Amino acid sequence: MYIVMVTPECAPVAKVGGLSDVVQGLAYELSIRGNAVEVILPKYDCMWYDRIWGLEKVFSDLWVPFHDQQIHCDVYFGFMEGVKCFFIDPHSDHNFFNRGQFYGENDDPQRFAFFSKAALEFMLQSGKHPDIIHCHDWQTALLPVLLYSQYWHRGMTHPRVCFTLHNLKHQGITGKFILRQVGLNPAEFVNQERLLDNFNPHAINLMKGGIVYSNFITTVSPNYAQEIQNSGFGYGLQHTLHVHGGKFGGVLNGIDYNMWNPEIDHTLPSHYSADSLDNKYVNKEALRNRLLLQHNYKPIISVVTRLDEQKGVGLIQHGIHYALAHGCQFVLLGTSPDPEINNQFLAIKHQLNNNPDCHLEISYNDELARLIYAGSDMMLVPSAFEPCGLSQMIALKYGTVPIVRSVGGLADTVFDADYSHRPYHERNGYCFQDLNNEGLESAMHRAIGLWYTYPQYFRELIQNGMRYDYSWNYPAVHYLNIFNYIKE
Q1: Closest Cα to residue 213, out of 295, 165, 148, 277?
Q2: What does the pLDDT read at residue 1?
Q3: Are 84 and 53 in contact (CB under 8 A)?
Q4: pLDDT score of 346
Q5: Structural domains of the chain ordered from first start
Q6: Residue 440 CA to chain centroid, in angstroms?
Q7: Parts of the chain with a pLDDT under 50
Q8: Minimal CA–CA distance to 197: which of 214, 216, 172, 177?
Q9: Is the peptide bond before 262 cis (omega within 30 degrees of 0)?
Q10: ∠198-203-205 over CA atoms, to 5°?
């Protein structure tokens, strides 16, 4: 099958969040299963170009209609972690992708509306007729609208579109002028059945357009699929998702075990598996040495995350003090796009600066993240909402017991040691329901208690988690089934 993924992110070169890892992991898994897979990205100026192999210009005469002009683009090709990628480089006064950052510009809707149009124009002009175009999040949501409204009539009748929703908090709500810029008549598309936002009569919703015009919609975990249809996590799109529920489902993300695996992770002082668990504790001592923590008989609880409200920053802050007051060490690695949140954690860091059981690193470092996953006993993931979550799946693989709020993909991957309905050998962590300090404390209390009182049972819980398979193996099968379904 010939599959083209159109996306604003792809690890490792254009990475903001989990979306980038999903695209890279799924694209690679589908390709090694014998499918022809290509990824189309903007050619950002801030990409990690040293992670692209063989980058070269392959198409230099791409003209894209936009508003009242034709914008000239070059297209580059290169390999990223074994995945074939094309990069669209527009030359115009708009300077779309030379901003020093991927997102966060006032004209983001225009930038990515142009990208959606340019991706289709590139496929048309270069003679690409994929079986499946797989679009990701609101940034590419205009592509199926344009495909079936414009490019279908220009000969692109073969592709079918799968549209994946990674996070409904961001939907691309913008003005109607965007439609005119890409050659669509607002009078035809601005209504409740198509792109009109469900709550703002003066705005269009790009994500809604992607839902309406795609052949199939997925999101990144089965539980999140239920939440966004039936709760406020849908951020106003609940009705639209119900209307199109016959072509909607949740597919749990995977992680790439070639990249996240303590048996082969070259950054770790000691490799280990579920059957050689004692070697894990070499990494625990290395983590203490690196972060100048005292060497005591205590568990290390950690957080590795982007620090924003979605991730439950208030609960993380409470968890730091609770852990230290209950015989634990605490390590945090993370940074926030919000200066106020960064300052809150910097203040806690200053407050605890001389505490030999605590280290807060307000930054991000991939090598340190891996050592924290390997060297910790437990990992805190107290999210307010979590479409899928990758950190808990990485923690499980690295033998670090997750303590999670049971929402979204966290509920699909972590099963409580005491209260899960699953058999004991399938239980792998601790869960709590309520988004408050009491809920967090209940789970932390049980986890810390098991570590101290029943170390053998805690070890079995670790091994249960390490034996789960959250690779891309099963998600790839689900996606291929979806692609075959809409292709027929």
Answers
A1: 148
A2: 96
A3: no
A4: 97
A5: 2-254+473-487 (3.40.50.2000), 277-466 (3.40.50.2000)
A6: 24
A7: none
A8: 172
A9: no
A10: 60
195-206 burial code (b ≥16 CB/10 A, e <16): bbbbeeeebbbb
| Cβ contact 120:146 at 8 Å | yes
CA distance 79 to 73: 20
Q: Name the token pair of 208.
A: 């809604």
> Residue 219: which residues within 8 A CB-CB, separation 6 or more?
164, 165, 166, 225, 228, 248, 249, 250, 251, 387
Which residues, other chains included, contact 190 with Cβ-Cβ below 8 Å and sequence gap of 6+? 176, 179, 196, 204
- Give the three-class secondary structure for 276: coil
- pLDDT, tens digit (0-9, with 9 covering 90-100), for 80-124: 988 999 999 999 989 999 999 999 999 999 999 999 999 999 999
**Pair of tokens at residue 9:** 């992110």
Cα–Cα distance list, 471 to 212, 279, 396 (Å): 30, 23, 12
Strand order across the beta sheet in which 132-136 lies: 53-66, 69-80, 83-91, 36-42, 2-6, 132-136, 160-165, 216-219, 248-250
User: pLDDT at position 54, please?
Assistant: 96
Pairing of strands 69-80, 53-66: antiparallel
What per-residue confidence (pLDDT) applies to 42? 98
The pLDDT tens digits for 182-241 are: 999 999 999 999 999 999 999 999 999 999 999 999 999 999 999 999 999 999 999 999
> How many C-beta atoms lie closer than 10 Å to residue 474's C-beta?
14
Strand extents, DSSP E, 119-211: 132-136, 160-165, 173-174, 204-205
For 419, the 3-state DSSP assignment is coil
DSSP state of 10: B
Alpha-carbon dihedral 453, 456, 460, 462, rounded to 10 degrees: 60
Residue type, 213: Y
Distance between CA atoms of 173 and 185, rounded to whole angstroms?
Answer: 17
Alpha-carbon gap, residue 162 to 253, rounded angstroms: 15
CA distances from 335 to 360, 361, 429 (A): 10, 8, 25
Q: Are 305 and 317 in contact (CB under 8 A)?
A: no
d(CA 378, CA 299): 8
Q: DSSP letter for 404, please.
A: E
Beta bridge partners of 205: 173
Q: What pLDDT does 488 receive?
A: 79
CB within 8 Å of 214: residues ≥ 6 apart: 135, 144, 161, 162, 163, 247
Would you state the pLDDT for residue 249? Answer: 97
